[in-house]
Structure formats: structure tokens, C-alpha cells
Amino acid sequence: MNRFTASVILAGFLTVTACGAGGEVDLEAEKADARAAAGELGRTLKGELVGAMQSGGPVEAIEVCAVRAPEIAARVSEDTGMEVARTALRVRNASNAPDAWEREQLEHYLRLMDDGRPVSELPEIAELVDTGDGTAFRWMKPIAMGGVCATCHGKSVAEPVRAAIEARYPDDAATGFEEGDLRGAFTVSKPLGGSQ
Q1: Burial letters for 78-100: b for 16+ Cβ neighbours within 10 Å, e otherwise?
Q2: pTM, to two decimals
Q3: Residue 133 predicted with pLDDT over 90
Q4: Among 49, 47, 88, which Cα is nearest to 67's?
């Protein structure tokens, strides 16, 4: 059993609490808060994207992703006291690039998929991480590539959409996906206390 597997098992099956730098940490409560925060980000962003697609088409939706997605993530983060975001191994916006912990989890998801697990069966990951400055709660949940997402992230992106993506994101690496692929993940980080 490697360190990653052990930490996932630890995070998934610990009863209720674990010791953090500041005392007891209720892992189940932290996971519930992370799920709620990621759900708020996902629902709000999806609602704005669907509205943009209906009113102005995919080019307008690209602007929602560029402008509104960071604003929504910042608002949810401020409201919850957690850093709430989306990340992926292939990003459109460089500010969504994964940190080392996130990259490790995303690569783990790909290995599980190589073993035949669909995105819908990939587990959420939650663990306490030593940051060097203290302890942080980290959480991740995979995002599957859905049908409507193919308009801007699929293998056959229409030319006006492709041109708008290239104009906004010249270093885009987030096209070529098929429905059911791992598009990325919701990610949550919350500092729990400093080093003693």
C-alpha cells in the first residue's frame, strides 16, 4: 500500500476526528463543508453558462468562464473560509493549473480510469496535509466531461468558438475531450493551523 492509498483510506474511513495542529479536526464535517462549497461553485457556474449559451451562444459562454468563473470561485471562497476552485491536468486558464497535491490526485484518477473505472465511480479524496507552515484540509472531487461541455472542450469545436478560445486563451490545452473523460476536478483547501 503506497502513501497515497493509505491517506485516502485514512481520510475515507476515519471515524469522526483526527488531530490537527489546532486540536481535533472533524473530518466528516470538513468533507461536508467542502462538498457544499464545491456544489455552490458548480451550480452557480453552470447556471451562468447555460444562461450565456441560451442568450448568446458558446462565444458568450467563453466570456462567462473567463470573467465570471473566477469571481464566483472568489465569492464562494470568501463565504466559506475555504479556497474553492476547479483544476485539471489540461487547463484553459493558467490560473487553474494544479498544485503538486492536486496533480497527484488527478494522476491517481487517471490510473483508476486506466483500470476501467468511469469518472462517475471515482472517489472524492480528502486528507490532512502538512504544508510546511502547518496543516491544511485538502479535498477533491472529479468532474466528468459532459455533453454540453463538448461545445467548447470537445474534439470538434466550431471555428467561431475555436477562434474565440484562441483569442482569449492563446495557450489553451483544454480541447479534444470526449463525453465521459475526466475533465478536471473541484478542489478545496482550508488551513487548519500553524506548526507548533
Answers
A1: eebebbbbbbbbbbbbeebebee
A2: 0.84
A3: no
A4: 49
